User: Fold this.
Amino acid sequence: MKSLFRVFLLFVTVACLTLVVVGCSDDDDDKNPVGSTDSAGRLAVVQTTGDDEDNIAIIDLEKGTASIDLLPVGGTCNMTQYGDYVYIVDKGNDRIIKFDPEKAAAISEMSTGAATSPNSIVFVSATKAFVTLSDAPYVAIVNPSDMSLTGTIDISAMANDDGDPDQYHAVLKDGKCFIALRRSSGRSLSDHSSLAVIDAAADTVITESILITNGTGGAGRLCLGGQALGAQAVSGNIYPYSIGSVSDPADGAIEIFDVDTMSSSVLMSESAMGGSMLIWVFDTATTGYAITGLNKSSGGEGWSLKRFDLSAGTFESVSSFQKSEYCWGIDCTSDGLVLVGSKDEENPGVWIFDAKKDYAPVFETPIDVGLLPQRILVVR
Assistant:
């Protein structure tokens, strides 16, 4: 009898434990209503800006909360992830910061040289990366492992009369680094914009390829399209975008670049895109999200969130988001969330929209990131 009683007690205990575990699982699902419960892709790093300060914040995508004022920066930053770290290219302070998003802290940093104004970083390997410098006639070669400058590549021959080719965004494809050159003097464009093509192994210049449309880079961020969701290289076509003048909704265009002939052709006009494009991100080799439009002060209705498909030649509005201010903050996750920065001072923060639910907001209000959001990078 005692033996049977012990078996009964054991059965009851196991049953109760099973109920507790199942109950906990249900609670967890309620607390995590979107996407996967995997921690990957559940954080986003945000560069924020204000009247006299700029900083870094981190968003928890599951909770809809943010840790703010984590690291002062210099006003204009572009961010790229490689491995476990986010590399913050701090243009205003001539430096690159190696940032651990899990610890919410800077690990190390390096200077790119006084008055060089770094714009973007592209990774060849764990020990080699190229850094584009907006105010220098050379490309920096760095070791991201120990954050050291290991060399430079002279591209002064591609500069306009001011001696500066105005480097912006860069991407890798087929062992080559392609760098967008605006070639402007202040706000005045010169004769053309182009791509500098670098042999990524030999660190030598291959050629300069002149674009059909003038005015790449500038206000248009991530102006070389085709790199999907955290990939380190472009797998399909490279799509250079030239914005021309940000206040003219019809002078820019998307081109498609042929890496075999080192030449491009116009794919879409700004008119077909719904105006000038401030930024775009790709979730596949040909599709993604963009902010296009024209400021109300320039005669437009403001900027809006678009879903684009370059194969189909479409830019479709998916939200009434923004409709007023510039917005350079946008990224997306692999499970259909779209993060967009609201710079409306009456309702600032980062909106999260769910593409699987007709772009409904995941949270009722934008996530407060302390200051106005300027750049967004989902951690993958």
